[in-house]
Structures are given as C-alpha cells and as structure tokens.
Write a structure and sequence with these properties.
Blueprint: H1 3-13, E1 18-23, E2 27-33, H2 42-53, E3 64-70, H3 72-79
Parallel strand pairs: 2-3
Antiparallel strand pairs: 1-2
Helix pairs in contact: 1-2
C-alpha cells in the first residue's frame, strides 16, 4: 500500500484538517488532525482511525500504524510551541 492510498482511505472515513503519513509500505506513522476527535479520549480516537481502515489491519495489508491524533485546537496549540 502506498502512502497516497492510505491517506485516501483515512480521509474518506474521517474529516481531516491535517493528515501526514510516512512509512515503508507496511509500518506507518501518522499525524491526524480532525474535529471528529473533539471530546474523545485517546483510545477512542485511535479506534476511530482503525475503523476507517476496516479489515486492512487484520488482513495485514497495513501491518502497523503508529499515530498521533489531535483536535484542531490541540494542533494549533501544539504548532505554536
């Protein structure tokens, strides 16, 4: 899977104001900023992203995804530092 394909899948299932991906085709690192994360705990945010991937993790199409998730306000505060 390419980073463009993975980005398209995540963006189709989650409204992202910022989405940054890097990886080697199986192991991915993502920074995701979405208003959908408002009021959610970290585990809920990650579950939301995993849900956008459907069975791609179980089928090993995406072997690993490490992510940082932010609301737009958290991202703005983080970027200001």
């Amino acid at each position: 899977m390419t980073s463009e394909e993975l980005q398209t899948i995540i963006a189709a299932g989650l409204p992202c104001s910022h989405l940054e991906l890097s990886g080697d085709g199986r192991h991915w690192y993502a920074t995701i900023v979405s208003s959908a994360f408002e009021g959610q705990r970290l585990i809920q945010r990650h579950q939301r992203v995993y849900a956008t991937l459907g069975g791609r993790l179980q089928s090993d199409e995406v072997h690993a995804l490490s992510m940082k998730t932010y609301t737009p306000a958290e991202w703005a505060a983080n970027s200001a530092q």
